[in-house]
Amino acid sequence: MLTFETLNELTLKVTCQGSDVLFTKAGAFIAGDSPQKNYRFEKVLLGPQNGLMQAALGSLMRRVTGENIPLMKVTMNGDSVTYYANYGQHVVIYHLDAGEMISVESENILAFTQDCDYKVRFLGVGVLSQKGLATTTLTGRGKNAFVAVLSDGNPLVLSNVYSGNTISVDPDAVICWVGQGDCDPQIKTDLNWKTFIGQASGESYTFEWNGRNPVTVIVQPSERSGGIRLSVD
């Protein structure tokens, strides 16, 4: 069994009792503490899915959609504590309930347990984001479904589960969103003649969830280089 916790906001501490398997961003391991070194690392060549065919299809999907991420499998054979980090980025932990799904940018994944079903899926035709039409999803299917994500700076957490408010975010700043079932955002665009002469506000499109779409959204206080840039020189 694995448990996740953060240390100093920048490090993921993974405690293993017995034997288990962890998936992390390749190269994220920074330290380990155990009676003897009873864990080993191996590169995930295709994907964490069970079955060769499913893993191969998943790998192809990730490469085509731009959601590819080098993953490492950590096999633990006994009690141990291991630590993971990525260039001083902040670490956010989420414990998924059974059937609960987190949609996350692949570059923001630090680690997840094998109780999470991992796949890449399309958001829908016409969706514009910094990576295109797809997102990486992790769905809880057991009591030990932990996910750790990365943020450039202390993240902002927004939720309309109880308020019923509308949440609107910049797609280049969003890290992930969490909810039950179909909780994908609507895409709102604000394109006009100013966009095409280089006088746009810089916020030409947003991800939006209304009150009928209960969700928790995590946003980082910085934007990725990307998005849609329309102008005429």
Q: Enumerate how many helices there are, as a single number.
A: 1
Strand-residue proportion? 35-45%
Global shape: elongated
Tell me the series of helices and strands, N- to C-terminal.
EEEEEHEEEEEEEEEEEEEE
**Class based on secondary structure composition and strand pairing:** mainly beta
The number of distinct structural domains comes to 1
Report the radius of gyration as a whole number of Å.
19 Å
**Total strands:** 19
Order of strands across the main sheet: 5-6-3-10-13-8
Helix content: under 10%
Question: Any idea what the CATH architecture is?
Answer: 4-Layer Sandwich
Biggest sheet record? 6 strands, antiparallel
CATH superfamily: Mitochondrial biogenesis AIM24
Q: What is the third-level CATH name, the topology?
A: Double-stranded beta-helix
Instruction: Measure the end-to-end span.
Output: 58 Å
Poorly predicted residue ranges? 52-57, 125-132, 193-201, 227-233
Q: Class in CATH?
A: Alpha Beta
Provide the residue-averaged pLDDT. 80
